[in-house]
Design a protein that fits this description.
The complex is a heterodimer of chains A (184) and B (198).
Chain A lengths: L11 H25 L5 H30 L11 H31 L5 E2 L3 E2 L8 H36 L15
Antiparallel strand pairs in A: 1-2
Helix pairs in contact in A: 1-2, 2-3, 3-4
Chain B lengths: L5 H26 L3 E5 L5 E8 L2 E7 L2 E7 L8 E7 L3 E2 L3 H8 L11 E11 L4 E9 L2 E14 L2 E11 L19 E12 L2
Antiparallel strand pairs in B: 1-4, 1-11, 2-3, 2-11, 3-6, 4-5, 5-7, 7-8, 8-9, 9-10, 10-11
Classes of the chains: A mainly alpha (184), B alpha+beta (198).
């Protein structure tokens, strides 16, 4: 690959993937929290069916995003960030990529273990990854729940960091991921 | 028929054929009776496939009995009687099984047994077809099945399937009447290893 001049902004594709996935994650948390409080019934099944369809959508978008990221490196971090800030930024972004795969995959695995196959909006059914097993289901559910807590925590950290960069440091870290804005 | 000498053998062959035909004509209608079998529980399977939240799921009935009287040449007197223990339903998820056995769906407390009894069996291009009365959750309705009958060394194999609508039998009351998340159509498949009944 030819060496490219570092970009100042994220590409339009990277921005689109970022915001679509962000919106889907917000929907996912809402659906999961609502369904968690319901007894096994039609309403719960409908909510979880949507949760699974959106989750598999996130997985497909995560593949696109990872491939795009590998060929289109992110803009460099602003000068003046301390070592710990740089480490935190990189660790958070790396964790997001891991979770974008780990959340849907553990969800898909736990559905397989419970013998509740995953449909994609009723259009087609994803194959079960493992056979039905009560014990595997419990472990995978706990993992999925734990990872969702980690995801929630780093979403908060990520949002706070973006706001801090924008309002405190007054740099272009937030703006370069925002469509319809200009960065100098 | 290379080397067949028409002039010499024709009368003999004709006489032989006539004898066989006479014997068949005489014996078959009067004496053909279906063989009586019972399904070997350990090697027989009864499975259903439903659609839940857009994806298929399978369940089995571990306990059922099948009394099968069948002979390909005696369809008129062939007859199936299958009794299914609804409590033996297993979809490999205990939460779902608990719901399926509850009063709104199978209501196993009041309807512990389902029964299928054939009314007629006919030959089809690819096997056989039967119409029978299925009693499920206290409702009796005709359900057709298609099946294959394959004789084995010490019995026979009976494999087939049926399609039914769960709501025809009231399987799904209250919120479960909705077909949005749980489809109305259910496929039933079976594979029975039949042993002669002694």
């Amino acid at each position: 690959m030819p060496i490219q001049a570092p970009r100042i902004r994220y590409t339009a594709i990277a921005q689109a993937l970022h915001w679509i996935i962000a919106a889907l994650i917000a929907v996912q948390f809402t659906l999961a929290w609502t369904a968690d409080d319901l007894p096994l019934g039609m309403h719960k099944l409908a909510l979880l069916a949507r949760h699974k369809s959106f989750g598999m959508t996130v997985l497909m978008l995560a593949v696109l995003r990872l491939v795009w990221r590998l060929f289109n490196p992110a803009p460099p971090l602003p000068a003046g960030m301390t070592g710990i800030e740089r480490f935190l930024a990189r660790a958070t972004h790396f964790a997001f990529y891991v979770l974008l795969f780990a959340m849907p995959l553990t969800g898909w695995l736990m559905s397989s273990a419970k013998n509740y196959s995953v449909s994609w909006f009723g259009l087609f059914t994803w194959p079960n990854l493992i056979g039905p097993n009560e014990r595997s289901f419990q472990i995978l559910k706990e993992t999925h729940d734990l990872l969702s807590d980690v995801l929630f925590a780093i979403v908060i950290l990520h949002v706070l960091a973006a706001l801090k960069h924008h309002f405190w440091n007054k740099d272009d870290v937030l703006k370069r991921m925002l469509p319809f804005t200009n960065t100098e | 028929m290379k080397g067949f000498k028409t002039s010499r053998w024709t009368p003999v062959a004709a006489a032989g054929a006539a004898l066989v035909l006479a014997a068949l004509g005489d014996v078959e209608p009067a004496h053909a009776a279906p063989a009586t079998y019972a399904a070997d529980a350990a090697q027989s399977h009864l499975e259903f496939t439903g659609v839940q939240a857009g994806a298929e799921f399978k369940g089995v009935f571990h306990t059922f009995t099948a009394a099968i009287d069948f002979a390909p040449d005696a369809l008129a007197s062939s007859h199936f009687d299958v009794q299914i223990d609804m409590n033996s339903e297993d979809s490999m998820d205990k939460d779902r099984d608990k719901t399926i056995k509850s009063s709104d769906i199978f209501d196993v407390a009041h309807h512990p047994t389902a029964q299928y009894v054939t009314k007629s069996i006919t030959k089809t291009a690819s096997g056989y077809s039967a119409v029978g009365a299925l009693t499920l959750r206290g409702v009796t309705k005709d359900v057709p099945i298609d099946f294959q009958f394959t004789p084995t060394a010490d019995g026979a194999k009976l494999q087939g399937s049926a399609k039914l609508k769960r709501l025809d039998f009231g399987v799904g009351q209250g919120e479960w009447k909705s077909t949005e998340s749980i489809g109305d159509a259910v496929k039933v498949t079976f594979s029975l290893l039949l042993k002669p009944k002694s």
